Amino acid sequence: MINIKYLIWALLAGSFIPVVGILNGRVARALGEPLHASVLLFGVAILLAIMVALLAGRGLPDIGQFRHLQPVEYLAGFVVAFYVISATVLAGKIGVANFIVMAVSGQIIFSLLIDHFGLFGAPIRPVNLLQLGGASLLLTGLVITQIANGK
Fold first, then answer.
1. Domain segments of the chain: what residues?
2. Looking at CB atoms within 10 Å, which of 10, 52, 71, 92 has the fewest?
3. What pLDDT sits at residue 7?
């Protein structure tokens, strides 16, 4: 059974996702450049990560260990940067709710593919009809939100 604290933590983390788009959009307008806003966001994020690691007594990583990583393992950094830059640029153009609906739809669809095929070294967890039904409901909701927005 999954610890409820972890589920609440995940819910809280997810609830902050829309905040990234809107606040970074505000910073982009203030700085006059969306990419500069993303640079600031990552600067703050790295400082916070360093502080948390030190306060938790975990120390800092040995940079020499990075050479043992596979090239694909660096992809996570690219994905995070792509997401943040996308949220910064698109939230102001299509709205925070539209961006999040599209982003979550993409996450669920690709998560099912990752599980089903064991992509990126994930354990294979075959997708079942109930999961496909849930994903279909999500996509139906996506279509409804876009119709409601006049798209």
1. 17-148
2. 71
3. 87
147 band by pLDDT with thresholds 50, 70 and 90: confident
Q: In this structure, what token pair is assigned to residue 9?
A: 């933590």
11 sits in which H/E element: helix 4-31
Q: How far is CA 129 from the centre of its chain?
A: 26
Retrieve residue 47's tokens: 């400082």
Which residues, at least 6 apart from 88, have a Cβ–Cβ distance to it below 8 Å? 20, 21, 24, 25, 27, 28, 34, 37, 38, 41
Residue 114's closest CA among 79, 151, 71? 79
The answer to whether 86 and 78 are in contact (CB under 8 A) is no
- Which tokens hold the place of 135? 């994903």
From residue 29, alpha-carbon distances to 25, 32, 35, 65, 75 in Å are 6, 5, 11, 39, 28
